[in-house]
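Box 3.1 — From sequence to structure: Trk system potassium uptake protein TrkA
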Amino acid sequence: MRVAIAGAGAVGRSIAGELLENGHEVLLIDKAPTAISVERVPQAEWLLADACEITSLDEAALQRCNVVIAATGDDKVNLVVSLLAKTEYGVPRVVARVNNPKNEWLFNESWGVDVAVSTPRLMSALVEEAVSVGDLVRLLRFSHGDANLVELTLPEESALAGTQVGDVEWPEDTSLVTIIRGTRVLTPTREDSLEAGDELLFVAAQAREEQLEDLLSVRREDATS
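Predicted structure (token representation):
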């Protein structure tokens, strides 16, 4: 897979290193000469250019990229890069970094963004996830379909503890994608039982989140009354 990363700062270089370790082709783009540190990620391609300019993106052959990551520290730049990648070059997947949470509402399919990653929001979500049981925590937002990656740790008193996945009437537009049980990561089947303490990861429409939280958090005595 070929990936172009706009922004060769600490974030961009870190992403590049991870992708290269996983066998992907990576191109780092930055307009600041001081950011071009080939020795830090020698396996990557490097391009000194302004990622907001069509001529630069032509030189980068963005049409050959499977993914573009807008990872600069400037939200305006990330939005422009995302829009150009999607509309001018037809890049299948565009991931954009959100620096200021107040700008998060802009990072949607109208600007070519498939996945928006807000570092402040993600950090706060991970804190919530570590201390919350029975509360739905939003980890990531997907622009297409208005869906989110959400997590809930199944509480001890949940009526669904001990219930098989296939026997649960899940809300519409929700999908249970992973069960984390201790150190194990499980791909759920209809026969798998839910256990108290399971971390459940869903892709769910935002409009269904409250319904999903109510379903998972309902107490045993409430379900039988």
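Summary of the box: The first strand starts at residue 2 and ends at 6.
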